């Protein structure tokens, strides 16, 4: 607020002076301090008090220093505008089944639907005289109230449209004193030098000149909650001309205030996350761009999920700022995020704890939460009834604490209010606040209880468990050798399918003793990628290349030698073949065919139809004759014995065939199939190798997925012995003897 203090002081005194004048009119004097009117000297005293009030507010509520930050940050420099969910959006789904169905249909790592109706927080604050702001821990409730206060201080130059003096009160301050809101407001003015602060406060309240910001209803001790609520309700009723904004965690709120409009802070979307990062690194645009770019990489999708709340987004920015990268071990990142919620944030906010739960150290809390997480994840459930969760909590505490009279539901509520790791999504229905935290705690349970073997046997090919595998690898501080060896054995058993093994034999034979300077497994992976793309191409009009191709490419990427030129060659040929023989052609073919047939049927314009086919034919010609692709594959030297000269000759012959005239869709499909046969022949892919059933394709997908996961787990691991990894790498994608 530097530089704007005089304007802000003038705005505050512009409200205060008329209040003092009304006091003078009513009583004739201010205890003899001033005359019957406010002279310039008196107005100057009020102006100086107003200036100090603005400075005090900015110093107390305009700075952010959390999570061990070395220096405070100006709130306005990093503040990202929040959005609210309206009351009608808060409880639309009321059963476990509805919530499970909605989450899975959304197909995204978020418990909040993208289709929720959201509205600007500032807009709502301007529209509503009485507002209750709800949200989980670290969602920005307090920050929003503070920011609204800063906007109100600016008066006409701010974005809060009501000319009021903001008063920020932390409700936790009433823990050790009587709940006297008016006296607390008076103290705020008194310490800044307002004369007759009590009378000024009473008159300002009477005239509705204040914006009263009551922060942290959930931070009031349970035994005082009823009294605080009653006092707030009475205060609002008595001084109902003023504006009130109150904040509370969702878990602790029971719709206490009948006058108030309830809204919930929505999760940050991508635009808000990027804006926050830009503000955070305002003096280093390159760091901002790099941080945002890395956060959007596929391997960081779970980490990005955490950034949907400002608190954990702040953690992500702090971690990146220290090393210009995210922690190499993803388990370290999620462990830190969990500790922030279990220790640092609850401690900084001073949230009261339920007695039994207060006796648990952080490790025991993690053990309890990991047991709940694992049991739910194993049964493929994200949402749990209150009674079930409370029962697990009670059983655990009875075993670890010498206490038999434990109320599981009270402890569950305490866990939610203090940490927000588990939250109530609908009446009596709970889930973990982030899927990432449930996955991390599930992995922690598996590592703590030596469940590695059952994890591999039961879940290796289930993509839902992918993040758990990666986190388990990162948690095994003694080394992930056992995990990787078990995964390799299981993957090898998947490769014993007759068609898969035949394909593996071909890949091994065509790359064996080849000249390309790559690891043997990388050569086999590249050959499999090319072969599978061609296998899928026989149904190219019906469906694009399947995921198996991409998975094989990923394996090739991971196993390539470190020379950039080699890496680029493999990436280029693999991506070009996928594009030219797969996705681009399929999209162009189907889109233009639809356009052509619709035009032909609806308008009878054959010319429009033929134009569409010409476009397809041009794209197809480019796809079947591309010497660069063939040359790139040849130059890698990974395919021993492939007949590249004949391949080029036959592709050219196909291109010249019927090149002078427009051909029908049927002829085009036939030409495409002939092209596929040319490629298969040149690469020695016999019919018994490429004739895959749907079941075989699914088995191949599982096999390739398992091998890719092995590579990813090796990267995620803290340590793996060199001997173990060399053995695994040598055996990868090898056929059965």
Structural account:
This protein has 737 residues and is an alpha/beta fold. The chain has 3 domains: 5-61 and 81-265, Rossmann fold (3-Layer(aba) Sandwich); 355-449, Arc Repressor Mutant, subunit A; 493-731, no CATH class. The protein is 62% helix and 7% strand. It contains 34 helices and 12 strands. The strands form 3 sheets. A 7-stranded mixed sheet has the order 4-3-9-5-8-7-6, sandwiched between helices. A 3-stranded antiparallel sheet has the order 10-12-11. A two-stranded antiparallel sheet has the order 1-2. The protein is elongated. It starts with a helix and ends in a 6-residue tail after the last helix. The model is unreliable at 540-626 (pLDDT under 50).
Distance between the termini: 75 Å
Main sheet: strands, sense, barrel: 7 strands, mixed
What class, by secondary structure content?
Answer: alpha/beta
Helix amount: 55-70%
Give the amount of beta strand, in percent. Answer: 5-15%
**Average of the residue pLDDT scores:** 78
CATH structural fold name of the largest domain: Rossmann fold
Q: Give unreliable regions as ranges.
A: 540-626
List the domain count as a whole number. 3
3D shape: elongated
In spatial order, strands of the major sheet run 4-3-9-5-8-7-6
- Strand tally: 12
Q: From the 3D coordinates, which CATH architecture of the largest domain would you assign?
A: 3-Layer(aba) Sandwich
Q: Give the count of helical stretches.
A: 34
**CATH class identity of the largest domain:** Alpha Beta
What gyration radius follows from the Cα positions, in whole Å?
Answer: 33 Å
């Amino acid at each position: 607020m530097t530089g704007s203090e005089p304007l802000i002081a003038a705005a505050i005194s512009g409200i205060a002076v008329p209040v003092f004048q009304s006091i003078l009119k009513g009583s004739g004097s201010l205890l003899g301090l001033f005359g019957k009117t406010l002279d310039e000297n008196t107005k100057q005293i009020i102006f100086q008090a107003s200036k100090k009030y603005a400075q005090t507010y900015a110093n107390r509520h305009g700075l952010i220093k959390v999570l061990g930050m070395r220096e405070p940050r100006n709130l306005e420099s990093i503040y990202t505008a929040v959005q609210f969910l309206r009351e009608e959006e808060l409880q639309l789904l009321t059963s476990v089944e509805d919530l499970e169905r909605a989450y899975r249909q959304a197909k995204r790592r978020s418990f909040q639907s993208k289709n929720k109706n959201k509205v600007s927080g500032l807009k709502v604050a301007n529209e509503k005289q009485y507002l209750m702001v709800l949200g989980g821990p670290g969602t920005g409730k307090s920050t929003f109230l503070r920011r609204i206060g800063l906007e109100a201080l600016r008066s006409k130059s701010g974005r809060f449209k009501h000319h009021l003096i903001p008063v920020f009160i932390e409700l936790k301050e009433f823990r050790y004193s009587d709940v006297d809101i008016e006296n607390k407001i008076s103290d705020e003015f008194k310490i800044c030098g307002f004369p007759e602060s009590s009378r000024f406060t009473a008159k300002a309240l009477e005239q509705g000149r204040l914006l009263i910001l009551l922060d942290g209803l959930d931070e009031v001790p349970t035994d005082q909650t009823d009294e605080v609520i009653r006092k707030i309700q009475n205060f609002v009723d008595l001084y109902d001309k003023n504006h009130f904004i109150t904040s509370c965690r969702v878990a602790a709120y029971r719709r206490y205030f009948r006058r108030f409009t309830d809204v919930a802070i929505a999760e940050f979307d991508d635009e808000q996350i990027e804006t926050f990062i830009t503000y955070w690194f305002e003096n280093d645009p390159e760091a901002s761009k790099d941080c945002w770019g890395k956060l959007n990489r596929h391997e960081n999708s779970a980490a990005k999920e955490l950034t949907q709340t400002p608190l954990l987004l702040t953690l992500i920015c702090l971690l990146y700022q220290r090393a210009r990268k995210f922690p190499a071990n993803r388990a370290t990142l999620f462990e830190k995020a969990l500790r922030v919620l279990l220790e640092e944030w609850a401690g900084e906010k001073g949230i009261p704890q339920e007695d039994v739960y207060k006796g648990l150290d952080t490790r025991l809390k993690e053990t309890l939460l990991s047991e709940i997480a694992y049991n739910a994840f194993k049964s493929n459930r994200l949402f749990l009834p209150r009674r079930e969760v409370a029962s697990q909590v009670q059983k655990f505490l009875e075993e670890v604490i010498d206490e038999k009279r434990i109320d599981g539901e009270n402890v569950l509520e305490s866990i939610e209010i203090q940490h927000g790791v588990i939250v109530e999504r609908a009446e009596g229905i709970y889930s973990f606040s982030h899927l990432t935290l449930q996955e991390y705690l599930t992995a922690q349970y598996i590592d703590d209880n030596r469940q590695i073997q059952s994890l591999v046997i039961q879940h290796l090919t289930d993509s839902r468990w992918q993040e758990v595998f990666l986190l388990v690898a990162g948690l095994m501080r003694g080394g992930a050798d056992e995990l990787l060896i078990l995964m390799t054995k299981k993957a090898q058993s998947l490769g014993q399918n007759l068609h898969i093994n035949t394909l593996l034999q071909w890949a091994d034979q065509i790359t064996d003793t080849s000249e390309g300077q790559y690891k043997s497994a990388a050569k086999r992976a590249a050959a499999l990628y090319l072969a599978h793309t061609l296998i899928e191409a026989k149904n190219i009009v019906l469906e694009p290349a399947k995921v198996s191709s991409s998975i094989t490419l990923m394996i090739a990427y991971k196993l390539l030698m470190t020379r950039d030129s080699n890496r680029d060659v493999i990436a280029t040929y693999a991506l070009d073949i996928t594009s030219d023989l797969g996705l681009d052609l399929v999209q162009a073919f189907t889109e233009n065919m639809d356009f052509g047939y619709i035009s032909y049927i609806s308008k009878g314009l054959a010319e429009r139809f033929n134009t569409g086919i010409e476009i397809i034919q041009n794209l197809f010609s480019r796809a079947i004759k591309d010497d660069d692709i063939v040359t790139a594959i040849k130059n890698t030297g990974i395919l021993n014995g492939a007949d590249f000269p004949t391949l080029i000759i036959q592709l050219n012959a196909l291109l010249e065939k019927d090149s002078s005239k427009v051909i029908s869709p049927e002829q085009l499909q036939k030409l495409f199939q002939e092209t596929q046969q040319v490629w298969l022949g040149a690469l020695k892919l016999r019919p018994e190798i490429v004739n895959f059933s749907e079941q075989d394709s699914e088995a191949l997908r599982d096999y390739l997925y398992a091998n890719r996961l092995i590579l990813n787990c090796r990267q995620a691991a803290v340590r793996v012995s060199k001997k173990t990894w060399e053995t695994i790498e040598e055996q990868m994608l090898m056929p059965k003897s």
